[in-house]
Amino acid sequence: MTAAAHPARVLLCRRNAEGHIVALTRQLLSAQEVQAGGWEVVRAAAAEVEAFLHEVSTQANPLSQTDSELARVLEDLIDVLINRGLIQFTDLPKAAQAKLLERRQTRAQYAHRLELLPDDSEADLF
């Protein structure tokens, strides 16, 4: 695919010597600029693009990883308090109840997907 093929949807990347993405742009560049800058067309949905964007966003906000970890700690703490009868789920604000239920449902869906993966003893079956 060339940069001229779909100018509105083209995503260009620049790679380092190891082949890892180090820069992305949606800027419309001429063929000469693409070649001179070492840019290449890449699909926006490519796993390596998602990994690069995740890395960049984590570097931009170092608290993002700890925020998600802290959210899980708080969920577990709430579960412990409920299981010990110290609080009732309905004691929580409606917005908190909705968010906790949403996260539990999402986690259950992902857990189901992960069950489809083989354990280590079955790894050589593929």
Please explain how this structure is put together.
With 126 residues, the protein is mainly α. The protein has two domains: 10-59, no CATH class; 62-116, no CATH class. Helices cover 51% and strands 11% of the residues. The protein contains four helices and three strands. The protein has a three-stranded antiparallel beta sheet. The chain is elongated. Mean pLDDT is 82; it is low at 1-8 and 121-126.
Strand content: 5-15%
Instruction: Give the radius of gyration.
Output: 22 Å
- Uncertain residue segments: 1-8, 121-126
**How far is the N terminus from the C terminus?**
32 Å
Helix and strand succession? EEHEHHH
What is the number of beta strands? 3
Shape: elongated
Compute the number of structural domains: 2
Q: What structural class results from the helix and strand content?
A: mainly alpha
Count of discrete alpha- or pi-helical segments spanning 4 or more residues: 4
* Mean pLDDT over all positions: 82
Describe how the helices and strands are arranged:
Elements: E1 11-15, E2 21-25, H1 31-37, E3 39-42, H2 47-60, H3 63-83, H4 94-115
Antiparallel strand pairs: 1-2, 1-3
Characteristics of this structure?
disordered N terminus; 11% strand; 2 domains; 126 residues; disordered C terminus; mainly alpha; 3-stranded antiparallel β-sheet; elongated; 3 strands
Report a brief summary of the structure.
The chain has 126 residues and is mainly α.
